[in-house]
Amino acid sequence: MAWIQKRRRTDGGLSVRVEWRMGGGRSGVRQDETFSAGTDAQNLARAEGFKKMVEAAGSRWPDGWVKGEGFVRSPADHYVPPPYFAEVAEEYVRQIVDLSPGQRKRYLSQVKVLERTDVRGARIFHRRVDAISEKDIKAWLIDWDRSIKTKANYHGLLFGIFTYAKEEGQVDVNPCARTAPKRSRIRQSQADLRFLTEDEFRIAAQLAADAQDLLTLTVGTGLRFGEVTALWCSDIDLEHGTVRVNKAWKRDGEDGETETPGWLKKLVRPKHAMRGHHLGNPKTPKSRRTVTIAPALVDLLRPLVEGRPADDVLFLSPTGLAIHNSDFYERVWQPLQRDLQASGIAPFRFHDLRHTHVAWLIAGGAPLPHIQARLGHESITTTIDTYGHLLPAGDELISEIIETALSGGRIRPVMRLVRGDG
């Protein structure tokens, strides 16, 4: 049997001690436990509760109780199973610092797609994170009915998620570490870039009707859709023949979050609004650039710019708003592709106008570094990897060089006068 002793401390608080003899007999060693850390009522209640536990244990220490510390469980008792994949994935995506709101929203959407994906009769991404193996990842890569490029994009996200899980001690190994699709295979799987001939573009522009100017400026500058539709009248310098690219349309985040830079936020007005999108920085730092334009483009843009407010969006939809990509696709692009097929011209994507721009420049002898700057590529490697195959094979030129050397002549480089991009 146990009993309780109460004592007032020097600070006035109540200290409650539970005492008993081990085993309950008179010869048992005297034991005690003190409760004094809480309020008077808490100390008394804890002591009474502990007294009942001692008595229930046969006047012995309750199992797992350590004097002065309370119940202390073994490591096995503290085991907490790893979280589910979706929990880790969302935590990973939300802690990435350098991520736009739209990109974060896209990653979270991809996590949900993975969760719903069946792989050989099982939803492998609906498990706890430590229950997903390298074998599972390989099965997903083999069986998932998506392009290899799409799989590679998702694999990159998965690799980051499992790397994060490993750092957090939730998995021992990253199951994606040895499963990434080979870059060469990804490149081989992609369709050849579509380049329009001058005649094909001329017909396409005529068929595009009210979008003719937009297509012409795009093929003449190589701007992306999100860049060319974000141009304001003030971005066009008719006197110097340049177009300034300093903003682009970006997708909003989950709850409408935006990432408009401070300098631009001060200039944005209601007329610059677009559903689900906001004006932000271009794709990369080097995408912020100034592009020279041909005199023909200056003539084309003059009536579109003169007499309009500087902050007017250059190209507008029939409703007077900025051009939304999905509206443009339904209203202009799909009908245009049908008309092209009827005219015997193979369909093409809007982005192929950018490819066509480069093809024309290369055919005319423009140096790749100048093309890189014009496109806003961060690295010349991107330009070469994408468009290097368009460069002339040079067999004829090589033969001429060797012929010159062997016939006693002197090899001299061909000098070309190249106008800078300003």
TrEMBL record:
Pfam families in alphabetical order: Phage_integrase (PF00589)
MF term (GO), any: DNA binding
Tyr recombinase domain mapped to chain residues: 191-402
Top-level lineage group: Bacteria
InterPro entries for the chain: DNA_brk_join_enz, Integrase-like_cat_sf, Integrase_catalytic, Integrase_recombinase_N, Tyrosine_recombinase_XerCD
Keywords for this protein: DNA recombination, DNA-binding
Any one of the GO BP annotations: DNA integration
Entry's family note: Belongs to the 'phage' integrase family.
Designated name of the protein: Integrase
Organism for this UniProt entry: Aeromicrobium tamlense
